[in-house]
Structure formats: C-alpha cells, structure tokens
Amino acid sequence: MDFDTNSSFGTETLTTFLNNFDDLNLISENYTEFLLPYFEAISKDNKLRRLAKKKCKNYFERWVSTNDKEISTRYQEFWFILNGTFYELEGNLFHNLIINEVDIKEYENVLNNQAKKEFEPDTGKPLPNPLNNLILEEVEVTDYVDAS
C-alpha cells in the first residue's frame, strides 16, 4: 500500500486503508507512525467513521485472544482519533509468566561466564553457588500498584 502524504484522500483509498490497516503484512510496523493522517481523514467521513468504530469495537471485544501489541496500539490510536478517549480494554493487559522450575546455571554472566560472586558474611569467603537458597513467591502485582 502506498502512503500518500497529501491530507485529502479519496474514499476508495480510505476504504482500502480501513480494511487493511491492521494487517502487518500489508502495512508493516515501520509505517505505524504515518497512519495518523489516514485515521483523521476517516474520522471526518460519517460513513467511514461508523465503519471504523464498528471495526474497532469488534477488535476490542476479542483483543485478548489476538493480543498483538502493534495492532492493539493502532486500534487504540484510531479509537482516540474517533472518540477523543482511549478505549477501556477489559481483561489483563499482560499474561502472567509462571515458571515452575528454574535452572540457575542459565543466569551466568555471559561476559566472563561465571555467576555473580557473593561472599559469606561471617568468613568473607566466596559462596560457590549463591542462588542455592533463592526462594521465589507468587505475588499479586495489583496489591502494589495504584489503580489511579
């Protein structure tokens, strides 16, 4: 898809854009910053504006299953142009990462290929494996983040 820097786009161009702006194969991430004039032009056409709102709402209803950051950003920016506010997404923005087993040897310093040196507090001798007594707990992040 060619990107026209002129602010007056034809209806056919805007319709094609509206149908394809969420396809990263047609409009790659490199062009995201140039989409704003298209969003603004669509918002000025009543028919295309209604179609755009419907398309955005459909995406937001299923965004958790797609969860593509780039596409979500495009839809949020488009919604902002159409309505003046960001759409309140339901559900978690980030999925929890759960790791049942961790091999601490994976966390060695790549530069000198040895683990971080820790020393015994009483004797001052280096600990052979300082992460042996590492305990990880599950923590609910929302307990620590202000919702406002």
TrEMBL record:
Intracellular or extracellular location(s): Nucleus, Nucleolus
GO process terms (BP): 7-methylguanosine cap hypermethylation; tRNA processing
InterPro entries reported for this sequence: Swm2 (IPR031391)
Gene Ontology CC entries for this record: nucleolus
Listed Pfam families: Swm2
Coiled coil feature spans: none
Alphabetical UniProt keywords: Nucleus
Main location, first listed in the record: nucleus
Family: Belongs to the SWM2 family.
Name under which the protein is recorded: Nucleolar protein SWM2
Gene source species: Naumovozyma dairenensis (strain ATCC 10597 / BCRC 20456 / CBS 421 / NBRC 0211 / NRRL Y-12639)
Lineage, uppermost ranks: Eukaryota, Fungi, Dikarya, Ascomycota, Saccharomycotina
